[in-house]
Amino acid sequence: GQAVLEVRGLSVEYATGGVPVRACTDISFTLRRGEILGVAGESGSGKSTLITALTRLQRPPAVTTAGEILFHGRDGSAPVDLVALDGRRMRRYRWTALSIVLQSAMDALNPVMRIGAQFADVLRARDRSLSKRDAWARAVELLALVGISADRVRDHPHQLSGGMRQRAAIALALACGPELVVMDEPTTAVDVVMQRQILAQVLRLRRELGFAVVFVTHDLSLLLELADRIAIMYAGRIVEVGEAAALYSAPKHPYTQGLRDSFPPLHAPLRTLHGIPGTPPDLRRPPAGCPFHPRCAQRMTGCEERLPVLLPVGPKAGHEAACRLNETNTDTDTDAKTDTD
Ligand code: SF4
Ligand code: MG
């Protein structure tokens, strides 16, 4: 399919004190129209930083230091580099081209405004000709998309349950027909039953409306049910990416294997979970070589020196991992060095 978003070499730093912290390093991926890309990693892996960079919602001290975020509009015009847009031009893209759903709907919803009024505000800011009455009617339609009945439109956010608020925030993100919706752990604060309902709704709405999604979570198993493709982040880098079922059933990076074993699939019976020993690295002083080497049970001589790059790991096209276990020639250090340096 056609690309909606092409991210090329994106790096984000936090410029605090003397040492800049690289929260995202050299991130590249392509998102196709209507595709759901899941991004998984522990907290501190850089996944939330990636989302705020993609949506240009980052605030100092976070700074995008390299890369492009090419957005391809529906009209087939030349792609726009979101990194290069000033705030005024970026606001034209927010809501209509891309929108965001945050972990807590309370961050998106105004606590002192009725739900319908918040929808009306967003809709009328993009379409001045829309009457208040029509905007409220549209709010009712949008809430119905996520199973919230019309009588709730006059409620304030605190009158809704947590799950309802989260669904209202998703409906609000869809209000102006965006081509891309970026979601940061939108189901973390709700119970498992509500989580499944929300994921099913996202899948149904994607089918009906055709938007693409970047969905960030720490829970890899959840992405198995939702995502078309999955990218695994560690220490600010994508360390594995591939078609969801292939990556989940045959992970090629030891970190992905550990992450998978940390969370049971939603349908599976409970079993012993093997977490990943150790903690993510301090990005002020990232480890040399493979960033995962201090925690990796499969590390080899040289892993603490050489940074592995993403390489195809078949048999499924598009499956890539950055781990020396997948390199064909890892036996001699000197040969390997010339490959990647
Ligand atoms: Fe482990 Fe080495 Fe692979 Fe890194 S490159 S994940 S340390 S085996
Ligand atoms: Mg986060």
TrEMBL record:
Keywords recorded for this protein, A-Z: ATP-binding, Cell membrane, Membrane, Nucleotide-binding, Transport
Residue ranges occupied by any ABC transporter domain in the UniProt entry: 7-260
Membrane topology (UniProt): Peripheral membrane protein
Subcellular location: Cell membrane
GO molecular function, one term: ATP binding
Keyword Cytoplasm: no
Pfam family, one: oligo_HPY
Domain of life: Bacteria
ATP-binding found in the keyword field: yes
InterPro entries in the record: AAA+_ATPase, ABC_Ni/Peptide_Import, ABC_transporter-like_ATP-bd, ABC_transporter-like_CS, Oligopep_ABC_C, P-loop_NTPase
Stored SUPFAM superfamilies: P-loop containing nucleoside triphosphate hydrolases (SSF52540)
Family: Belongs to the ABC transporter superfamily.
Protein name: ABC transporter ATP-binding protein
